[in-house]
Design goal:
The protein is α+β, with helices and mostly antiparallel strands. 50% of the residues lie in helices and 25% in strands. The chain is built from five helices and five strands, in the order H-E-E-H-H-H-E-E-E-H. The chain has helices spanning 2-43, 62-68, 79-83, 91-104, 149-164; strands spanning 46-52, 57-60, 108-115, 121-132, 138-147. The chain has a five-stranded antiparallel sheet with strand order 2-1-5-4-3, sandwiched between helices. A hairpin with a 4-residue loop joins strand 1 (46-52) and strand 2 (57-60). The longest helix has 42 residues, at 2-43. The protein is elongated and about 100 Å long.
Length: 167
Amino acid sequence: MFLISLKKVRLYSETLGRVQEELLQANQSAVHKVEKLEFLTNSIKVGIWERSYTEESEFWSPRLYEILGFAQDEIEGTYHNFMSRVHPEDYPKIYEAGEKALKTSKPESVEIRILTKAGKYKWVEATGNIRRDANGEITLMMGGILDIHSKKVLEQKMQMFIENAPA
């Protein structure tokens, strides 16, 4: 009887060891994927935001904080904090894009001005998308913020030049 119990304990221990190794490998794979995503977003200079309804969490990438001029410990990376920084004239544009994404479940992009820590507005391109579960409930909202300020300022200067140039 003792030998049978000992054999069961050993088999259980071996199974536990295999499961533990599989979990370790899965974790390493997930960490590797996150590192690659961070490398990509830093390379293309896009700030990432995420709002997970299943995990009840919100996240901003380091690049998004950088675009807004904040250190990560200076402002909480939430939907509310981002939306409170949108220029009042641009709020309808971002709201409309969000509503369209909710209806179509397709990514939407909009050019808006966002208030930075320095107290100045900066042009960004905000893109967002949603994921739904099998019941149609939103599980994840995610998107990117691209700094397009220099491009927009140049466009505005060119437009003013064209409008004010003699015929």
